[in-house]
Amino acid sequence: MFIDLASNPTKKSVTAVKKTEHTEVEQTTPSDEKEVETELAKLSKQNEESKRKASEYLDRLKRLQADMENLQKITKRQVETVTKQASERLILKLLPSLDALREAERAANSGSSLPPEEIAVGLKMLDQQISEALGSEGLEAIPALGQPLDPARHEVVSYVESDEKPENTITEEIRKGYMLNGRVIRPSLVVVTRKSPEKGEKTVGEAVP
Fold first, then answer.
1. Domain tally, the chain
2. For position 148, which CATH number holds?
3. Is 129 contained in some domain?
4. CA distances from 37 to 41, 44, 52, 130, 145 (A)
5. Beta bridge partners of 184
6. Residue of 208, 145, 139 lying closest to 180 (CA atoms)
C-alpha cells in the first residue's frame, strides 16, 4: 500500500509543534536575558550602596574615636590643672603657719625664755590656724570623746570597764581622726567602755580561781 506522506495529517501536526516550540524559544530568550541583566544591575547597585554606607560608618567611627581621645586628653589636662591649683591654694594657706613655726624655732635657738603660758597660747593659735586652713579644703575632725563607738569612723585600741557609762562609749582619744569632704581618710584611735564582768565571771586573760 502506498501512503502519501505529504498528505499525512500526523506529520503535519508534529512539524507544526516543532515550529511553534522553536518560535517560542526564540521569542522568550531575549526577555529572560533582559530580566537577568536587570537583576544583576540591581544587585550591583545594592552592593555599591552597601559599600558606600560601610565607608561612611567607618569614617564616623574613626571621627568618634578621635573625638573621644581628644576629650580624654582635655579632661586629663583639666584634672591636672585643678589638682595643681588646689595644691597651690592649700600651700599658700599653710605658709603662715610654717612661718610661725620657724619664728618659734628661731626664738628658742636665740635663748629667749618665754613663759610656758605664752608658749601654750602660741601653739594653740598655730593649731587653730592650721585647722582653719585645712578645714577650708574640706578637712573635718571626727567627733570622738563621749560619742558612741562607730566602727566606720573609730578604731578601738583598748577597753576600760565602767558601769557608769553605756557600753562602747568613747572615753579617750589616742589619735584624732579626720574626714575629707565627708569621707573618712583616717579613723580615730579610741578607748571605749565595756561592762564590768559579773562576780564569778572571768574576763579575757583572767582565770577563775
1. 1
2. 2.30.22.10
3. no
4. 6, 10, 22, 88, 93
5. 179
6. 139
**Which grid coordinates belong to 126?**
598655730
- Rounded Cα distance between 179 and 142, Å, is 7
- pLDDT, tens only, 7-32: 555 544 545 545 555 444 445 566 77
Q: Which residues fall within 8 angstroms of residue 203, CB to CB, at 6 or more apart?
A: 197
State the chain's mean pLDDT as an integer.
Answer: 80
Residue 148 DSSP code: B
pTM (2 decimals)?
0.56
**In Å, what is the CA distance from 98 to each residue of 129, 140, 180?**
10, 21, 22
Domain of 184, in residue numbers: 139-197
Residue with cell 552597601: 50
In a domain, 24, yes or no: no
- Pick the residue with more confidence: 108 or 166? 166
Start-to-end C-alpha separation, the chain:
150
